[in-house]
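Lab notebook page, bench 4
Experiment: in silico fold of construct C2
Operator: M.H.
Input chain length: 93 residues
Purpose: comparison with the prior construct
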Amino acid sequence: MATASARHILVDSEEKCNEIKDKISAGLDFGEAAKEHSSCPSSAQGGALGEFGPGQMVPEFDQVVFSGEVNVVHGPVKTQFGYHLLEITSRTE
């Protein structure tokens, strides 16, 4: 069974998400950005969500995490919780 681990940053607007993504592209560390900007409790761990399998996260997350490129920042991804930047840190098939 496939598993993945990822980090994310959760904010309340697509604009804010894009601003943070630009800062990360310019060199800001993803974990530091998560600690500073994310409204999810995982921000204390730099946005780390740990390891999970398909179906354990909302469908929008699964779609990106189980098909997107590893070690790349994806997003904004809109879910019922807000807007996310996702970084897939590992994935096994």
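Observations: The chain has three helices and four strands. Residues 3-92 form a domain with the Chitinase A; domain 3 fold (CATH 3.10.50.40).
Next step: discuss at group meeting.
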